[in-house]
Amino acid sequence: MRIDSPYRAPVWRLPAKVVDRRRTLAALAGCVAGGFIPTRAFAQAVESCRLTPDSGEGPFYFDPELVRVDITEGVAGAPLELSMRVVRAGDCATLDGARVDVWHADAIGLYSGYGRQPGTGEPSYSVMDETFLRGTQFTDPDGRVGFRTVYPSWYGGRTPHVHFKVFLEGDEVVASQLFFPDEFNNEVFREWEPYSERVDRRRTTNDNDSFLRGGSVDGAFCEVERVSSGYRAEVVIAVAS
Fold it and tell me: What distance in Å separates the CA atoms of residue 141 and residue 149, rounded to the nearest whole number?
């Protein structure tokens, strides 16, 4: 479904219902019965709910005005189920109706919609008019959204990451990045095509990525697990509201 500009109040200024801490904890417990099993990342976030750092928009953002779960558009890569939960920093209240935008590079390090991209070289196929690996969702009453995508690759100077923005009632409250443990990055680059075709050229890991700042996380780390179809990643984003 296509959506209008974020600055048009009838579309974006949705009421963000906040749910108290008790309901947040109950919702997490209820996820198990519903087939969604919360991992350590969710448990830790409920205990601390520390504000997710804002690292800025980063490169290659545009809004294709697409509200959708599956953002792959058929591009190759290791399947990734990305689950995000948006909560209020401090008291862990879940936020209903928050807008979440995501965008990231494909399996060879290219973003859709742009020509020359530093660190990747000239695209081997046309991406100028494409919208793959971009999408928007609105959180449910438990603060959750989920995207079906592919595992992002590295490109010059950057470790794999997913860019995201969160909007509350039309206002951007955080623009940052999601990261993945190098244990899984290394596995993807070793075992999956087309990542494995360029693994020998990879020079940047989580340890020397500039945005991770030598171990001081400027973004959020996903909890990742291998599943039959590929990978599942989960993360909690805590925002000021």
Answer: 23
pLDDT digits (tens, 9 = 90+) for 33-48: 333 444 555 555 455 5
pLDDT, tens digit (0-9, with 9 covering 90-100), for 96-148:
999 999 999 999 999 999 877 766 655 656 788 899 999 999 999 999 999 99
What is d(CA 239, CA 51) in angstroms, rounded to the nearest whole number? 6
Bridge partners for 172 per DSSP: 167
Backbone angles phi, psi at 3, to 5 degrees: -130, 160
Q: Which residue has the tokens 């020998």?
A: 200
> Cα separation of 228 and 241, whole Å?
38
Q: Provide mean pLDDT across the span 213-241.
A: 87
Domain 9-239: give its CATH code: 2.60.130.10
| Stated pTM of the model | 0.81
